Amino acid sequence: MHCAVAAFVGWGGEAAGAESREREAQRSASAAKLGFPSVTTSLRGAFTSSARIALAATMLAAVAPSHAQQETLYLRTLAANCAQCHGTEGHTVAGSPLQPLAGRSREELLALLKAFKAGTRPATIMQQLARGYSDAQLEQLAAFFAAQKR
To answer: What's the pTM?
Structure first.
């Protein structure tokens, strides 16, 4: 757990709790000497334990990537494996003997990938690479490269 959240929630141990209560007592005594009413300013006193945990969970959820962001990152990671030969996002380098993947039809790319995986399309390395992916991953790769601009 993130240390700032852990400290806020109160997982600092008994010693930390005792120190916090002592500092609060000193603040209250100082305020009383100056004629101010005793007001607890500690967040520990303001929230119940369950409220602190709920607030901490909300804070963590706010920084966690969304499902859509995770899916995009996952697809880009899969596609990055193809970049060595086929270029970033399927755009091959000028003069490359390989055809670019970007902008080709999803159906065409999926058929090629499945043929490589089955070993029915001759290739130097694509058969071994394609066998390392599930059919669902091949479908995701085909859709990813089809969605890229030519």
So the answer is: 0.57
